[in-house]
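Hi Y.,

Following your request, here is the sequence exactly as I used it, all 197 residues.
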Amino acid sequence: MSDLFVPAHRTLPLSAIAGGATPGSEVNPAALYKLPALGLFSFVVAAVSLGIARGAIEDYRAATKGRIGAYTGRKLADLAGVQLRLAEAAALADVAEALMLKDCDEATRITEGDAVPTLTDKARWRRDGAYAAGLCTKAVELIFTASGGAAVYLDNPLQRAFRDIHAANAHYALSWDVNGTMWGRAALGLPIEAPTL
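Below is the corresponding structure, written out as tokens. Let me know if you'd prefer a different format.
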């Protein structure tokens, strides 16, 4: 859009959604309206990564169940390497989900207690969101590689999962360098350079 006027009463500064009371929480006092939007934003994008990983794992499992190796004539599902890659990919996705849910539950408990999360809490949540997304990427890469050359064809859903998860994780909110460094600074007692956090 261009030349579009947005009246001031339709805007909200980022500082108003950093955690604690917001203009919306005056009308709805639920914890949801007091959560720090940018402190938890990495989970919004990481949830996409988790969904991609879960879908790719299921696609791989379904495709591999009855697949016969072109050179060996054996069922691929009988191979320990195939079983281990599937198990590891699923474990990575499970760990990513557990980490994200733990942090979201913690943020909700803090705001339900009418407290405001600390800057260090928010930096840790951003770190954990980026890390969880990285775990999901590793899960997809494991099964993509285990799928062999068949994974690169456009009719194979794994090629799209591979591209999509790398696209999702290219988002700034999931940058390990940005979010890991932010938390590392906080952990070492240095100022956090994130004015909108």
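Residues 42 and 173 are 5 Å apart (CA to CA).

Thanks again,
Q.
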